[in-house]
Design brief:
This protein has 338 residues and is of the alpha/beta class. Helix content is 44%, strand content 13%.
Length: 338
């Protein structure tokens, strides 16, 4: 099955939705259009409703712990009673979401529908306190951000279910910063990462996944209670394959791999074709088969995606990336069926 990551380079929601429904109709996702508005950036898009946000001149945000008190009190009151309306993703922060929901409601229901939210590790290590420290290291701020992410994800899930009660929901945590895990630039403990991811996904009733667009500690991710792991299989396939034993346990436990095999670089995409990507991916899968993972288990627990969001690409490049994602998925399904 094919789906997308989230960001797209378009400024018109209709154009983005047309591409999504054309090429990933079985598991469509709403488009994030940061070129349409600065409010749709990876950090600002999901800060709506967070207490203690201060926006400085120039648009940069920082957070204050427990101030103003009324905001923090209201936030936790809404969280405790699961007042999901307080955590809605508004049209001002996601111009593509409402058009996507309207369009999907007019179509034959898909089997799956996908949403996404910036994860608590990326939010917590990117956002700063007034003094410049990352808010992840402030326990009050970290707890708030984890709950904020959880409720943003839960709101999406419930929104999808109202419109598409028969569809399976998928919500991804986007965690690009975990590509730096283990480096000198990211002094965060393993258990802190696992705990934050688990808590952010805890309220979700449907499928929950994670997207990391680089290499990371994959066994750590597999311990976080997620159903789907999405990674850049175009550039980082060899390092991912090193964890065959852990991957087998993850798959046998019901987990799935979303193979981001289609590159999201315009120049790279010009020089490659879908059959080559299928060959590259099957070589990787064959290596896992040699390590004792049945091919049927791999194939039946597989999604195909671009390697990352297409937001940094040209519009033509994004169109090609989605087209190739659909082609690769179709070729793999045909191969497996034979």
């Amino acid at each position: 099955m094919a789906t997308g990551v989230g960001t797209m380079p378009f400024t018109e929601p209709a154009e983005a939705c047309t591409l999504i429904f054309q090429h990933v109709p079985d598991a469509p996702h709403w488009p994030q259009l940061f070129r349409a508005s600065s409010s749709e950036g990876m950090i600002d898009q999901f800060l709506e409703g967070a207490p203690g946000v201060v926006v400085e001149e120039g648009g940069k945000s920082y957070l204050r712990a427990l101030e103003p008190y009324q905001e923090w009190e209201q936030f936790y009151a809404d969280y405790e009673v699961s007042n999901l309306d307080a955590f809605a993703v508004s049209a001002a922060r996601a111009q593509g979401l409402q058009p996507f929901l309207e369009e999907i409601g007019r179509r034959d229901p898909p089997s799956f529908v996908k949403g996404q939210v910036t994860g608590p590790i990326t939010l917590g290590l990117t956002l700063k306190e007034q003094g410049g420290a990352a808010v992840f290291f402030n326990q009050d701020l970290r707890d708030m951000l984890v709950k904020l992410v959880a409720m943003k994800a839960r709101w999406q899930e419930e929104t999808f279910r109202r419109i598409l009660p028969q569809a399976e929901t998928i919500i991804f945590l986007d965690e690009p910063i975990l590509s730096s895990y283990g480096s000198a630039f990211m002094n965060v403990g393993r258990e802190d990462v696992i705990t934050a991811l688990r808590e952010a996904c805890a309220p979700l009733q449907g499928l929950k996944g994670i997207h990391v667009c680089g290499n990371t500690d994959w066994p750590m991710i597999m311990e976080a209670g997620l159903d789907i792991i999405n990674f850049d299989a175009f550039y980082y396939l060899p390092s991912f394959l090193l964890y065959a034993e852990q991957l087998r346990g993850f798959l046998e436990g019901g987990g799935a791999i979303a193979w981001g095999i289609v590159p999201t670089d315009d120049e790279e995409l010009k020089n490659i074709h879908s059959p080559e990507l299928v060959g590259k991916l099957k070589e990787g899968m064959d290596q896992l088969v040699q390590e004792g993972i049945p091919y049927g288990l791999l194939a039946e627990h597989a999604l195909i995606t671009p390697s990352c969001g297409t937001g940094s690409m040209s519009e033509d490049g994004a169109r090609r990336a989605y087209e190739m994602t659909a082609e690769v998925a179709a070729l793999l399904r045909r191969d497996y069926a034979s």
